[in-house]
Amino acid sequence: MVQHVWYSDKTAQLKTPQGIFEWFVACLLNQSVSPEHLFRVLNDLRNGGWLNYEKLRTLLVTDPAKLKADLREALKSYRFPNKATKAILINVERTEKEYKGNLHNIFHFSKDTAEVWKRVNDLYWFGSKKAGVFIRELVVQGLWDLVLEQIPIPPDSRVKRVLFRLGFLEHRGDLKEVEQAAKKLAKEAKISCLDLDCALWLVGGICTERKPPCEKCPLDFYCPSFLPSK
Question: Are residues 36 and 135 in the same domain?
């Protein structure tokens, strides 16, 4: 999972249009890359001024071709530089047109949890997994007053794999079964589905598809897939 690591006062920074934009880009680039690599890419972008929302907004108007080329060059160490460049610029345009230059207006324009969830999911190249991470942090920081329990778990391969190996799923590919199992487990644990998703995603980093290092997993004692080998 991505983390906001640049500021001593995370909440104060996230309150600002610039801060929430940086958090958005961090979530946007959290795509099949290691946390260490993601942090390097983000710091390179920030040091080069390519996370400055006002700079990007201005250059989109005055010199979009050069901006695209320069941003793609700044992202050359990232796994998907072309897709990331396109996504950042499209979302800057949408933020200007739809949310008056401030992504917090996604929440302020409609404080209904379902509507906010839909708006965040609709951001370009974002989707439910990134949307869940993005929203959860803003709720945890007390900036968006939403009901996390009403937001569905955004299952990915890691989460499904862990639920399956722990014995909560009969069929890993059945998304309805994944959602039902996650809701039941979250209710029993008295946490939101997004909190459960975060925990299972972290465990999934250890619980790899092939040859998982089970002895390093905090859930090894409870895992039916590991117990026979103990």
Answer: yes
Continuous segment of H or E residues that includes residue 121? helix 113-121
In a domain, 4, yes or no: no
Average pLDDT over residues 77-83: 96
Q: Which amino acid is at 137?
A: E
Task: Write the pLDDT tens digit of every residue in 153-206.
Answer: 777 888 999 999 999 999 888 888 998 999 899 999 999 888 898 889 889 989
Q: What is the DSSP letter of 152?
A: P
Given a cut of 70, whether residue 230 has pLDDT beyond it is no
Report, in angstroms and rounded to the nearest whole number, the Rg of the chain calculated over CA atoms. 19
Residue 126: domain span: 10-146
User: Which long-range CB contacts under 8 A does 1-4 form with residues at least 24 apart?
Assistant: 1/30, 1/35, 1/133, 1/198, 1/201, 1/202, 2/26, 2/27, 2/29, 2/30, 2/35, 2/38, 2/133, 3/35, 4/137
Sign of the alpha-carbon dihedral angle for 24, 193, 145, 6: negative
